[in-house]
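Let us work through a complete example step by step.
Step 1: write down the sequence.
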Amino acid sequence: MDGGQLTAIIIVAIVMVASIFRARVRGPRHSAAFDDGRSRAENQRLRDEVHELKERIKVLERITVEKENSLAKEIESLRDR
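Step 2: predict the structure and record it as tokens.
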């Protein structure tokens, strides 16, 4: 190994160690992951919201299907005349 390769390896090692040290000093990026009370409440709120949205989608799907069926029935009744 010549001097240039060794220098490159040392520079990469220093950068890696510095980035690991910086990440440790900064701490976790998402503090909510460690705050059980707030994260649980937020998770429950989001679950409730998803449940409500799913119910609304079901209603919209039912309305759409009913309209399609009633429209199809009207078309068939007009054809029969």
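Step 3: interpret the result. The CA atoms of residues 67 and 73 lie 10 Å apart.
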